[in-house]
Amino acid sequence: MKGLFFLGLTASSLGFAQTQNPDSLKIKEIEAVNFTKRLPVAKEIINVQKDLDSRNLGQDLPILLKNQTSVISTSDAGNGVGYTGFRIRGVAGRGINVMMNGVPFNDSESQGTFFVNVPDLTSSASQIVIQRGVGTSNNGVSAFGASINVISKDPEDKFYVKTDDSYGSFSTYKYSAEVGSGKFWNNRLSLMGRYTHISSDGYIDRAFSKLDSYNFTALFEEGKTRIRLMAFGGKEKTYQAWNGIDRKTWETDPKFNYSGAIYGSDGNISSFYNNETDNYRQNHYQLLWEQGFNDHWNLETTLHYTKGKGYYENYKQGDPFSRYNLPDILDGGQLIKDSDFIRKKWLNNDFYGIVSTLYGKYENLDLNFGAVANQYYGRHYGNVTGVFYPIDEHEYYRGRSVKNEVAGFAKALYRVNDFEFFGDLQLRNIDYDTKIILAGDDEGANIKKNWLFFNPKAGVNYRIGNGKIFLSYAHAQREPNRDDLIANNDVKAEKLHDFEAGFEKQIGMVSLTANLYYMYYVNQLVLNGELNNVGAFIRTNSGESYRRGIEIGAVAKVSKQWEISGNVSLSQNRNQDFKIENSTFIKELGNTQISFSPDVVANLGLKFNPNKNFQFSLMNQYVGKQYLDNTEDQNLQLKDYLLTDFNAQYQFKIANNDIALKLLVNNIFNKKYVNNGAVYGSDPYYFSQAGTNFMFGISWKIQ
Fold first, then answer.
1. Where would you say this protein principally sits, based on its record (predicted)?
2. What does the alpha-carbon distance between residue 386 and residue 392 come to, in Å, rounded to a whole number?
3. Which of 201, 332, 346, 648 has the fewest CB atoms lying closer than 10 Å?
4. Please, which residues bridge with residue 315 across strands?
C-alpha cells in the first residue's frame, strides 16, 4: 500500500470521550443520542464540527462519510458534487434509514435518499448517529443496512457572522454565509440562518451541478421547554450522468457521457442536447417541541412537512407519436409516425406527519416510547413538446400515489449491577395506493397494498471497566418500493434476522471497538445490476441470503501531536440457491456473492497536529473487488482499489475573527478506479471517478 492513511474516525465517533473538548466543540446533550450511546448495537456518533468540518468544502454528505466503518460512497459526476450515494455493509441507500432530527428523510415511494436536494446539509448539522445493521426502532422505513440520524445544530448563544468559501478542481466552488442573532428576549430566543450556493462542472463531461440551499432555525427556551422552528431545503439543477459508459470507452475516454446524445443519419453522435437535466426543489419544515415534566419524564414531539417538486428533461429521438398519446401527422401527403421530442417527467409530492417520543428515566430503568403518523401524497405526470413539428406542451400520462404509515415502538434499558438488559418492540402499519389517471409510456400502475410488521429486538450489555461487551438480536421487515411493485406486483416484503456481538473498550490511549454480525435475509431485494430510466437500480427478491462479518475500529493517541486510527470490515455476502427466472427458463446459479458487496473495506491513517493551530492528515480507503450483479460473472466484476486523500487545516485569530484555511486533495496518487457500475445486456457499464483533484477553502467567523 502506498503512503500513510488517516480515517475520519475519532474517539467520539467510537462512542468514547474525546481527547480534546474545547468550548468551540461543545454540543448540547441530546436525549436520543444519550440513549443510543448505551444501546447494544454497532454504532458511531460523529461530532460534525470536530470530525468533518476541515473537509466540508462542497462535497456531499455521503462523500464526507466515506471513511466510516463499512461505508462505500459513490458519485455520478465523479467528484462528489451533485448526485451522490453510499452503501453500508453492501446495502444501498434504499436499505438505509435516514432521518433528519428523527423525521424520515427517505423518499416514501422510492425509499431513496437524495442528498442533492439538501446541499451543504453538513454545515447545519451538529451530530450524525450511524447505527449499523438493523439498529433500534426508528421513525421511517426499517433499516436493512444501517440507520442514520442527522441532528441539526442549535443557534449559538452570541451574535456572529460566518462565511465559508471554497474553490477547486472542475471549476467547483462554494459560497456560504451564515448569521446568528445570539440570545435575546431575556435569553429565551435565538435565531440562525444560512444560505449556500455550490457550482461544479463535474469530472464527467457536461455533468454540471448548480445547487442552492438554505437553513433557518428559531429556538425558544424557557425552563423545561424548548421549541425549535426549522426551515431548510434546496434547489438543484444537474446535468444527467446516470447512464455510465461501457468498458472500452472507460479505458479510452473515461469522462465521456452519453446523456443528451443526438445521432446523425450515419448512426454516429452529431451533437448533444444542452438541457438534459434534472431539476428539483425540496423544502423541509419542522416544529420540534421538547418538554420536561419532572426529573423522570421528557417528551419530544415534532410536526413536519416536506414539499418536493421537480422534473427531469430528455431529448427523445425518433419516438412514435403514439407513445405520447398523440396522432400521427400528415406532412405533404406523407404520414409521419415518429419524430423528435423534448420530454419532461414531473414529480410533485407532499409528505407530512407527526413524530413523538416520550423518555422516562429512573435509577436503574430507562424507557423510550415512540409514535409516528405520516402521509405521503405524490403526483407523477409527463409533458412533451415537438422539436420538428409544432406541438404545444402536451400531458401524456398522470398518476397519483398515497402512502399512509402509523407506527409505534417501546424501548427499555434496565441496569442490574454490571449488566444492562435491552428490549425493543415495534409495530408498523403501511397502506399504499397508487392509480393511473392518464395512461401512457408505461408509467405507473394501479396498486393497492397493505403491510403490518412486528419487529422485536433484544440485547444485553456487560460493563467491563470503562468499556463493555454486548449481544443483540433484531428482527426487521420492510415493504417493497414503487419501482419494485410496478415491475412485479407479486414482489415480496423483505425480512431480516440480525445477530450482533460487540466490544468497546478504552485501553490507555487506545479506543477500540470490535463487532461480529450475522444478517440472515428472507426475500432480500438485491440489486440485479440493471438501471431504470432515471438511473435507479432495479431490484429482485433473492430468496434466502446472508451477510456476515467482523468490523474492527481503533484510535490510538500516540502523543500530543500524533494520532493513528483505522477500521476494517471483513465479510461474506452470499445469496443461497440463487435463481434467474423469466418466462422461458429458470437458471440455477447456487450460492453467489451479493451484488455491490465487497468482502473487504478498510481504512487506515495518520493525523499530525504540530501545534493547536495546524492539522495535517492522510486518509485512505481500500475496497475489495465487487460484482455488478448476482451471477459472479467475472466480466461483471469491479476491481479492488486503494485511495489516499490529504487534508490540512490552519486556524488562527485576528481580533474577534476566527479564521480557518483548509485544503483537501483527493486521490493524491491519481488512481484510475470505478466504485459503481451497471449491467446493460451482458456488458458492464462504469461510473468513472476523478483522479487527483483538490478543494481549497477559507472559513471566516466574526463574533
1. membrane
2. 7
3. 332
4. 342
pTM: 0.93
The answer to whether residues 516 and 532 touch, using CB atoms and an 8 Å cutoff, is no
> Phi/psi zone of residue 199: left (φ > 0), alpha (ψ -120 to 50 degrees), beta?
beta
C-alpha cell at 441: 409510456
Residue 3 lies in a domain: no
Residues spanned by the domain of 312: 23-702
Per the listing, cell 447505527 goes with: 131
Please report whether residue 17 resides in a domain: no
- Domain-embedded: residue 602: yes
Q: Are 518 and 474 in contact (CB under 8 A)?
A: no
Strands 365-386 and 394-416, by their bridges, are: antiparallel
* Model confidence pLDDT, tens digit, residues 167-179: 999 999 999 999 9
Specify whether the CB–CB gap between 677 and 685 falls below 8 A.
yes
**How many degrees, rounded to 5, is the angle at CA 490 between CA 489 and CA 492?**
115
Q: Which three cell numbers stand for residue 351?
A: 409528505
Using only C-alpha atoms, what is the Rg of the chain? 25
Which cell is 238 given? 444537474
**Does residue 15 carry a pLDDT above 90?**
no
Give the DSSP letter of residue 635. G
Give me the residues paired with residue 502 across strands.
470, 515
* Dihedral, 139, 52, 674, 600 alpha carbons, nearest 10: -70
Helices (H) and strands (E) in the chain, counts: 5, 41
**Which distant-in-sequence residues (6+ apart) come within 8 Å of 480 by Cβ?**
491, 492, 493, 494, 525
Cell numbers placing 702: 466574526
Angle ∠(134,135,136) on CA atoms, nearest 5? 115
β-pair partners for 326: none
Q: Does residue 302 contact residue 290 with C-beta atoms inside 8 Å?
A: no
Taken in order 55, 56, 62, 68, is the CA torsion positive or negative?
positive
Residue type at 401 in one-letter notation: S
Contacting residues for 473 by C-beta, under 8 A, at least 6 apart: 457, 458, 459, 497, 498, 499, 500
Quick check: 440 pLDDT over 90?
A: no
pLDDT confidence of residue 28: 56
What percentage of the chain reaches a pLDDT higher than 70? 94
| CATH code for the domain of 588 | 2.40.170.20
Residue from 521, 504, 657, 536 nearest 576 by CA:
521
Cα–Cα distance, 162 to 177 (Å, whole number)? 6
pLDDT for position 214: 98
- Distance (Å, whole) CA 48 – CA 103: 19
Beta-bridge partners for 272: 261
Structural domain includes residue 10 = no
Residue 70 and residue 92 in contact, taking contact as beta carbons nearer than 8 Å: no
